[in-house]
Amino acid sequence: MPQFFSNKRLIILLASIIVLVAMIGFSMKDRKELSWPEQFLKDTVGISQSLFYKPANSIAGFFENLSEMKNMYSENKKLKSKLDEYAELSVSVQDLKQKNRSLKGQLEKEADLTEYQVKEATVIGRSPDRWNKFIFVNQGYKDGVKTDMAVVSPQGFIGKVTRVAAFHSTVQLISDNDQNNQISAIVEGNKRIFGTIEGYDSKKQSLLFKEIPINAAIKKGQKVISSGLGEAFPRGLLIGTVTDIKADETDHTKIAYVKPAADLYDLSHVTILERSMQQLDKNEFKAKEEE
Amino acid sequence: MSRILLPFITYIAFLAESTVMQVLAPEHYGWDFLMIPHFAMVLIILMSCYLKPSFGIVYGLIFGLFADLIYTDLIGVYMFSTALVAYFIAVLSRYLFSNFFVTILLSVLGVAGLEFLVYGLNSLIGIADVKMADFFYDRLLPTLILNAVFTIIVFYPFAKLLRKIEG
Fold first, then answer.
1. What residue in B sits closest to A176 (Cα-Cα)?
2. What is the pTM of this model?
3. To which H or E segment does residue A77 belong?
4. Are the Cβ atoms of A128 and B17 closer than 8 angstroms?
5. Domain range for residue A233?
6. Residue A163 is assigned to a structural domain of this protein
7. Going by fewer Cβ within 10 Å, which terminus of chain A is more open, N or C?
8. What ipTM does this complex have?
9. Contact between residue A192 and residue A212 where contact means Cβ atoms under 8 Å apart
């Protein structure tokens, strides 16, 4: 039996375990901003990541295109038939938009929860260990990105910005199991059904939609969207569809399994959304309360 | 020259984990097992086998810290695990012959050790909520295969570089 630890080394090991616990404790605090060495490291690694990710992605995309060419003909046919519907739809959308604007004008309301500005970003990497579900994008605070902004892909909502450096930032996907990763959501078409998206079932590949009232009439196939309340997200971002419902044993609520609308693995370009309606500043809020 | 090359190659391997390997990840093709690349760890294990123990530990601390700061939200988990695995491999390799098969075996052992340490620490904190059996079949076995293949590919060129550094 080889001697793994002499007495001196045992002390070093114990000391490093203490340091480990201290560091984990420090980083579990809810930090909003990165310190400058972290930002510097993030940007340096970000630059070299984009050197690697883009060519790799384009090569993989090329082979994907090759395999997709096989069923191009049938797809084309389908798309052509969809195109007619699209023309019809876009006319009615324009119509609705105009109506919406004029009605808002009558109400003298400048901004509401659904409005936002967009920033395009390219994905440059992804956390390799699947315990943490982060992606890295090439937009930082120099581009106007702030923490807690919503991030969407063309198919739907994917997550929020958690760490921002000067030119790069980290996006926490909705499937991340962090306790702080909660998004308040509603069922589309029925404003009464509120809940929060928290946690992910990796076996079912579904998000957990929790804290739904027990008497809520939630059904399979309904769409779940962001509520826009409490967070810096706009309202109405598509999160996913309900696939299964069960009762929560611990408290008197229901849990719904929600299949995410966006493919959380195949991400190359994402959009960061900034809600137009500003959240109240804390000082402002106090001032208003005092009035 | 080869002394500068060593951190550079390790950095490339570290980057490949989050970029090139993510494009090729099995989830893209709808398979439900996970292949986690630990390329920097493999190179650090090879360093521990062929160079002084302090090399492996220092590289383990630095690249572990990088992984913590960039790929995860918690500082310390990878830093501690990578350095500890590097130390154990350095001690073990003193008692074994250093040939091709033993090195592959040590590399598999080291990656398994890292996976178990990180799984344990993350379960303790509450980030990992996977059952042991699922962890073993869906994650650990494919991960070990991927990293063993990587070890076989880099073994000869990298061992040559390490011998040059040793002098």
1. B127
2. 0.83
3. helix A72-107
4. yes
5. 182-260
6. no
7. N
8. 0.87
9. no
